[in-house]
Amino acid sequence: MSFISVDKISKQFLIPKKKQGFWGSVQALFSTRHESKMAVNQISFAIERGEMIGFIGPNGAGKSTTIKMLTGILVPTSGEIKVNGKIPIKHREEMAADIGVVFGQRTQLWWDLPLIESFQLLRYIYKIPALQFHKNLAFLTDLLDVGEFMNTPVRQLSLGQRMRADLLAALLHNPSVLFLDEPTIGLDAIAKERIRELLVSINKEKHVTVLLTTHDMIDIEKTCNRMIIIDKGNKVYDGGIDEIRANYGRTRTLVVDFKQFPHLPAIDGVTSVSQNGLRFEIQFEKNKISASQLVSLISKHNDLMDLTVQEPEIEAIIKEIYNNPAIKKAGRSHETAI
Ligand SMILES: Nc1ncnc2c1ncn2[C@@H]1O[C@H](COP(=O)(O)OP(=O)(O)OP(=O)(O)O)[C@@H](O)[C@H]1O
Ligand SMILES: [Mg+2]
What sections of 43-114 are H helices per DSSP? Predict the structure, then answer.
């Protein structure tokens, strides 16, 4: 039996059927007619203790719904979940003692209290023995570097500081699993990088199993070696990140703002060009030509205002998975039996 086993779970939401306009909304309050929405559709996976896994998919794919089922916040419509031998919804109290959760979009800290007081309150909620509490607090304060703002009310913290404080709160009671729903959302590049490094050390030093949801592929590349991709409630990939990287990583997009309408020569390695005013998106194969070679060729004939190189989006990766059976196969071969 795996440490976390998820066997064909589904979650169906019933949403009141609504007609257009104000009266439609009023009618919906009294209507018994519902539309059903399959947010998660027969997903299965198994995770071993100590793994660190990226869980990704476009908006509305069912990531948060899955995390909520894993943590016992939502009941699956069907299917079975076991986390460290326990069924989340049945063993809620024992589960709470064994898992840590961070929802990047909201905090579990008390907004008006100095940070240290939130930790004190959590100590009582989780019934953490004094010695363990002080030891953990000291270790994590150092690791997450939150000492400087321990006496600051949470509302005055920057988003990056608050996220580190939330991570500390989630780890105070020594959970064996950490569920993270978009812990890097809204952070700038430096703060994101810091959170990634911290997650890697937490996984290593505290041997915590981590399931990480994000929209940012770089979060996954920097922290995980396995990822699960879902799309419209279905699992579309479960496997190594290298297999995906080798395939999706073929193209990049150079976005250039020109001073005047440009003259673009035919360049080997460029796969498509799209234009919006003086902004051009030039897609290129990165093993045929590098971004800097491309820029030097283009700037020979034109004056550039600005340029950026875009990494492929998760949507583009999913498209490639659907179109490329080899990637699908690579994913399947990593699937563990439950
Ligand atoms: N409580 C709810 N009632 C009805 N529908 C819901 C509810 N929660 C989620 N949904 C729907 O289920 C689907 C999956 O939502 P979910 O929040 O799990 O997606 P997600 O992958 O976390 O997306 P995002 O990247 O935007 O956070 C969406 O279509 C959403 O509208
Ligand atoms: Mg979500």
Answer: 63-70, 92-98
Per-residue pLDDT of 276-318, as tens digits, reads 999 999 989 888 999 999 999 999 989 999 998 887 677 777 8
CATH classification code of 250-311? 3.30.70
Give the ligand with the smallest distance to the CA of 314: 1
How far is the C-alpha of 126 from the C-alpha of 113, rounded, in Å? 18
Instruction: Parse the chain into domains and list their residue ranges.
Output: 4-246, 250-311
Fold of 4-246: Rossmann fold (3.40.50)
63 lines ligand 1 (CB under 6 A): yes
> How many Å is the maximal CA-CA distance in the chain?
70
Ligand 1, atom 10, lies closest to the CA of 39
Nearest partner of 285 among 313, 329, 262, 252, judged by Cα = 252
Please, is 169 exposed, middle or buried when counting C-beta atoms within 10 Å of its C-beta (0-12, 13-18, 19+)?
buried
Q: Token pair for residue 5?
A: 């086993």
**CA distances in angstroms from 69 to 4, 13, 72, listed in the order given:** 12, 13, 5
pTM of structure: 0.81
